[in-house]
Amino acid sequence: MVPDLTLFPPASCPRLIVKIGSALLVDDDGGVRRAWLEGIAADIAARTKAGQQIAVVSSGAIALGARRLGLAKGGRASLEDAQAAAATGQIALSHVWAEVLGAHGLTQHYRRDQKVMEYGMTVHSLDRHAFSQLSDALRARDDVVEFRISPTGD
């Protein structure tokens, strides 16, 4: 399916930030909804070809990792479980993104002056207010956008 480029046209919207939550990315069995993700990758490729910069913020690391580790409550029974699930799931998530984007000649890396930079970060806090403050502070920085980071506070 080809995305409708009249919605958020490249001329008036040069950069798109796409947030993909766990419920969209991970099926009920804890696996990746691969066919759906391949469609998203095709849309990203079409938008990139049209001249737009696309940054993807992808949840799903905890959900994927919890299944692989066999953790109860989707890996959210404790902070330690969530951290273990996130660390394990992030590896799987990164591989899946590399595969679906690679099928379109894209990478999940930011390129600048022929240097490839990639950074993955998982932040957990028991205090939702503190996490929101961190998100707001990061969102205000120009270099956060430059590195295609979009804090969501969730």
- Treating each run of at least 4 consecutive H or I residues as one helix, how many helices? 6
Q: What is the CATH-assigned architecture of the domain at 15-109?
A: 3-Layer(aba) Sandwich
Which value, in Å, is the CA radius of gyration? 16 Å
Helical amount: 40-55%
Strand content: 5-15%
In short:
This protein is α+β, with helices and mostly antiparallel strands and 154 residues long.
Question: Overview of this structure, please?
Answer:
The chain has 154 residues and is an alpha+beta fold. It is 45% helix and 12% strand. The strands form 2 sheets. Strands 1-2 form a two-stranded parallel ribbon. The chain has a two-stranded antiparallel ribbon with strand order 3-4. Strand 3 and strand 4 (115-117) form a beta hairpin. The model is unreliable at 114-119 and 147-154 (pLDDT under 50).
What's the arrangement of secondary structure elements?
Blueprint (H helix, E strand, L loop, with lengths): L14 E6 L1 H4 L8 H16 L3 E6 L2 H9 L9 H24 L7 E3 L2 E3 L10 H12 L2 H5 L8
Parallel strand pairs: 1-2
Antiparallel strand pairs: 3-4
Helix pairs in contact: 2-4, 3-4
Features:
single chain, 154 residues, alpha+beta, Carbamate kinase, two-stranded parallel sheet, two-stranded antiparallel sheet, 4 strands, 45% helix, disordered C terminus
